Amino acid sequence: MNLKQLSLPELEAALAPAQPSATAVRKVFAGVFAHARPTVDAVALAPQVPRRVADLLRAQAELPSLKIVERRQAEDGFVKYLFESPLGGRIEAVRIPIFEEKYVVCVSSQVGCALACDFCMTGKLGFQRNLQTWEILDQVMQVRAEADRRVGGVVFMGMGEPLLNYKETIRAAQILSHPAGFSISGTAITFSTAGHVPAIRRYTKEGHPFRLAFSVTSAIPEKRAKVLPIEKTHPLPELIQAIREYSEARRERAMIAYVAIQGFNLEREDAEALKAAFEGIPIKVDLIDVTDPTGKYLPPTAEELSAFRDHLQILKAPIARRYSGGKEIGAACGTLAASQYGGTVLPTPAASPRQA
Hints:
Helices cover 33% and strands 20% of the residues.
């Protein structure tokens, strides 16, 4: 019984032989996630956990953990955690500072990635396996345990395509947003997808409170196919229709992630293609400078980006430039590859009251 793997209803079913009250089940769930009790014994000894439930936990439960290989900090305050899983493989999470208020954690959902986006270092690793729910949650738990301010958001924008690991990532998000779990608002949890249309439609139908960010990068299919091979499997018109359905169901603007690449997708024709593709769909555009350590793709010049933002005014939509930090440590968008370079390696911190 892996306690970090179970949603509240699943935990209730697992503990059913001990005939627990709803309160006892919730206390165990909160002990695992909200309070991050480090051992099964610590969970079992929590107030309002009856003896029969405690005995069942001691006999059958486990609390596995990822191993932190290192913590590496960039000059801009971004911290990359490199983890090793007992199930195999190395993955990364990034602690993102939001002013002086909170952290957002960027988590991985797979070891490697099968989509092979041409500017993404994770894609060059190939796909190894999906992460289990507990491996996703443990990234957040370990970052939170060492944080000097609250973790107020989670983005599934690390290694892997989260919608290709649908069951595990959705369960993780449900636990992250549960009041007795991590108590993170559903609207502060975002899944980034390169455009897996069947999963987007399933997500829309199920009506989850979390947000989707759609990586488009070009509304000219030929251009998009050069950098996002998924275009050949789920062509742009199919993706646009799925985005339309999502926006209509939620009655909100769809977030369009647009990776800005020098000399590639920043001309007037690119803005006009976006306008034509999303006609009648309320959107907001996040511009993200490409970060490609190989040097094949370069970020836009200031003049190029300024001109493109002017072109984008024809969309009559909000346009933001998303900061992609931690470049020198391989923590920026598209650079996660279980690497170890740059920045400052942080020591293991002293145990906090939560850890002790």
